[in-house]
TrEMBL record:
Domain of life from the UniProt record: Eukaryota
Lineage summary: Eukaryota, Fungi, Dikarya, Basidiomycota, Agaricomycotina
Protein name as annotated: Uncharacterized protein
Signal peptide limits: 1-22
Keywords for this protein: Signal
Keyword Signal: yes
Length: 128
């Protein structure tokens, strides 16, 4: 091998190492938006009952940007941000017990699980 080729190769390897070491910085903190598995379509909750909201934690990245979860109720797609039914729990738990709040009975409710961003459950019913 010629000196010039060696120099080029060394330069290339140094440049490659720089790129490779820069990549993990970009991907160190991962957005994790687990899908809600309960309540599902067809679920009926009664006001005042306690239920476990559950979600799938499979595929959770090692470094999650925001591990602290929050669950709000949504009606007709409108989230009731001000009155979370659960908050300050680890998103890695996979379930959290909630009490069904005293809301207008209807069939267009969903729970929204927040970690990094919000994930809606399917629409379900809340009864009196
Ligand atoms: C997770 O974060 C820690 C500390 O910030 C870091 O040492 C580790 O390499 C990261 N792991 C991954 C897989 O990003
Ligand atoms: C929620 O899940 C926990 C753990 O599995 C269980 O102990 C608890 O009874 C459940 N709550 C309800 C309301 O089903
Ligand atoms: C959230 O939970 C942590 C650990 O259980 C606790 O130390 C902290 O005070 C809680 N924060 C709020 C706002 O409830």
């Amino acid at each position: 091998m010629t000196t010039s080729f060696m120099n080029t190769l060394v330069f290339f390897l140094v440049a490659l190492a720089a790129v490779v070491s820069a990549v993990p910085v970009l991907f160190l903190r991962d957005v994790f938006v687990p899908p809600v598995t309960y309540p599902h379509a067809g679920t009926v909750w009664k006001i005042g009952q306690r239920h476990n909201v559950t979600w799938d934690t499979a595929g959770a990245p090692v470094n999650i940007t925001n591990k602290i979860g929050r669950i709000v109720l949504a009606k007709g797609g409108i989230e009731d941000i001000d009155n979370p039914i659960a908050s300050n729990f680890s998103i890695l738990l996979g379930r959290i017990e909630v009490t069904v709040p005293n809301v207008t009975p209807d069939s267009d409710y969903a729970v929204v699980l927040f970690g990094d961003s919000g994930n809606f459950s399917p629409t379900f019913t809340i009864e009196n």
